[in-house]
């Protein structure tokens, strides 16, 4: 219990009196330092076409985020849609549950052995999720999982005062990694509108077509987006 409270306290201190644009980066740093994990990624509206990346702690986190963003399945999407934690402690065994996610992640980042995902609750509704990736087989030990759950609650509380800016800002925030954030925040939404207009179809269908193209060519959704906006 002491460790759980300590990590939650660290998160509160790290984000206290912090400019809104700095909050996601500080959260990622605090979670990465405070838990026995190898990558942390956090997003809003995770299980919707309006998904917005908040932070990715390193390259492993970026790949984990890109794969789930592209194939629209995986632990963080399930955590956001169900409101329950998801513990994928044996990724090969999870292939039946998320076949596209497991195959793509194994190809791009085979070092990931386990992923723990927690919903970000904002009052009575889930506004996103946070992922913790581990190289160690089995993922985090039980006590660390409890710490992570408490940390996810503290992270959601830290984000709550900034939610209006997070969801309504017309421009993507200056968060890092800026190229990935830009792709998730605005570029993909612009590309979806372009495809919808060209194909005379709905936004949802346009996004599905882009995801299918990305998966069929072994590319990320961000790369497909760049092609569309550059054409």
Automatic annotation (TrEMBL):
This is GAF domain-containing protein. Transmembrane segments: none annotated. Gene3D superfamilies: 3.30.450.40. Signal peptide: none annotated. Residues 19-169 form the GAF domain.
């Amino acid at each position: 219990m002491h460790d759980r409270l300590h990590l939650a306290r660290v998160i509160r201190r790290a984000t206290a009196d912090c400019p809104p644009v700095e909050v996601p980066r500080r959260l990622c740093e605090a979670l990465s330092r405070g838990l026995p994990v190898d990558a942390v990624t956090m997003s809003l509206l995770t299980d919707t076409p309006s998904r917005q990346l908040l932070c990715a702690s390193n390259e492993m986190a970026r790949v984990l985020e890109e794969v789930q963003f592209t194939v629209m399945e995986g632990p963080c999407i399930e955590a956001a849609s169900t409101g329950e934690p998801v513990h994928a402690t044996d990724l090969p065994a999870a292939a039946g549950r998320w076949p596209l996610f497991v195959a793509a992640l194994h190809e791009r980042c085979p070092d990931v052995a386990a992923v723990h995902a927690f919903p970000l609750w904002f009052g009575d509704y889930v506004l996103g999720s946070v992922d913790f990736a581990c190289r160690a087989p089995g993922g985090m030990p039980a006590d660390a999982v409890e710490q992570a759950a408490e940390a996810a609650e503290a992270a959601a509380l830290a984000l709550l005062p900034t939610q209006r800016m997070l969801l309504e800002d017309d421009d993507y925030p200056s968060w890092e990694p800026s190229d990935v954030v830009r792709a998730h925040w605005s570029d993909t939404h612009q590309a979806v509108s372009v495809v919808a207009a060209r194909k005379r179809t709905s936004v949802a269908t346009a996004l599905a077509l882009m995801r299918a193209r990305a998966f069929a060519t072994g590319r990320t959704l961000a790369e497909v987006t760049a092609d569309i906006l550059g054409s």
